[in-house]
Amino acid sequence: MNKILIIIQREFLTRVKKKSFILLTILMPFIFAALIFVPVWLASIKGGEQKTVMLVDRTGKYAACLRDTPSYRFEPSAENKDAYYAEDSEVEAVLSISGDLRENPEAVTLYSSREVSPELLGYVEACLNEQVRRDKLSAYDMPGLENIIADVGSSFSVPTVKRDAEGAESASNTYIAMAAGFLFTFLIYMFVMSYGGMVMQSVMEEKTGRIVELMVSSVKPFQLMLGKIIGIALVGFLQLLIWGVLLFLILMACSTWFGLSPAEGANPAVGAAATAAPGTEIFNALMGLPYAEMGTLFVLYFVGGYLLYASFFAAVGASINAQEDSQQFVMPVVLIMLFGLYAAMYSVENTNGPLAFWASLFPLTSPIVMMVRIPFGVPWWQEALSLVLLYGTSLLFVYVSARIYRIGILMYGKKPSLREMLKWVRWK
Fold first, then answer.
1. Three-class SS of residue 171?
2. What residue ranges in 305-346 does DSSP mark as E strands?
3. Which label site among 98, 231, 292, 376 has the fewest CB atoms less than 10 Å from its CB?
């Protein structure tokens, strides 16, 4: 046990002291937050200059509906002049209306010397469509017809609330639950693949450098493999912990900066209007997620999935002599992981369907698919059965990989076949 601890310590300290690890661990949360908030911030920035749009309305009935906005100012014009399209012109676009749009919807054109911005096009279409709708309603000459149609065409959204057998209620949001499930799914997929590959790379480097020959003279191959797997797993947990703390602080600061401070949702004195605010609704839904269950199962599935795949990668790294030889063994594993990722994506719309159920029990995909189901509620017996199958398979993989590792780590100059690797399992 003391030798395994020494190997764990060596693998852990070697990686956490690397500049690449430190930079990635610190910068990644900021990059992730920037991907979320920078586009929102940039999209909210409006140009300070109000652009001019010339309105050539030969009917004289649409100028009233095209009101000025902070971005655009509509000015009437008798004709569509060529000077409006000169390079030094301050005119952004020309809106030409040649006839009654109720009778001829094609009697309108928006001219510009460059592509028209979506904001301007959307505003013009919305204003003209609203005016045409009013003209069509007034043609029926029925009192209150517009109000009747507006009342019939109104829509509403259905709020969702989670309630248990004791009557306790909590806020719920399907899309927030989907996003949370996908986040944990992606983290498991990314870390299992990256740190599992790190185990294989470490074994290959020591084998090709003949360092392992000195190491196995002091420790057993199984101790060496187990120490590597656990040491690199601790690196992953440390990185996850740092990312979680930094992301929480960054997202809280950004949410406050963008006006989504959770303090509003936490204050009962805000009132019904604030309760319906999007930021408060999102915060309440986030608070309603089963974080204790999600966090506990995330750790369990991460450990089980990592043990399963890392032991396989360790056996592959010990059996081959060059990086290119690993493709034939690694590709099936990558395809299985991708299948799990796609199964999770398609299972989110029916988390209790056959695909979600069986993929969350199958050990090779359960760490990925089950995390999508947990925010929507999973029976405890399914979670327990899934974990038993996962850890049982993981221990089997560790045993088989250790048998392959003890032989392959000292084999040089030969590219083993799958049949030969299976023979190594039976050797005494």
1. strand
2. none
3. 292
Distance CA 64, CA 53 (A): 14
| 340 CB neighbour count, 10 Å cutoff | 25
pLDDT digits (tens, 9 = 90+) for 122-150: 999 999 998 888 888 777 777 777 777 77
> What CA–CA distance (Å, rounded) separates 249 from 45?
24
- Of the candidates 105, 162, 97, the one whose C-alpha atom is nearest the C-alpha of residue 136 is 105
CA 66/CA 110 separation, integer angstroms: 13
Whose tokens are 């209007």? That residue is 273
- Cβ-in-10-Å burial (0-12, 13-18, 19+) of 309 comes to buried
Question: What sign has the CA pseudo-torsion 68, 70, 75, 81?
Answer: negative
Residue with tokens 């510009």: 112
Whether the predicted pLDDT of 69 surpasses 50: yes
Q: What is the rounded CA–CA span in Å between residue 233 and residue 239?
A: 10
Tally the C-alpha atoms within 13 A of residue 327's C-alpha that lie toward its C-beta. Answer: 3
pTM given for the model: 0.66
H helices then E strands: how many in the chain? 16, 6
Residue 29 token pair: 């949360």
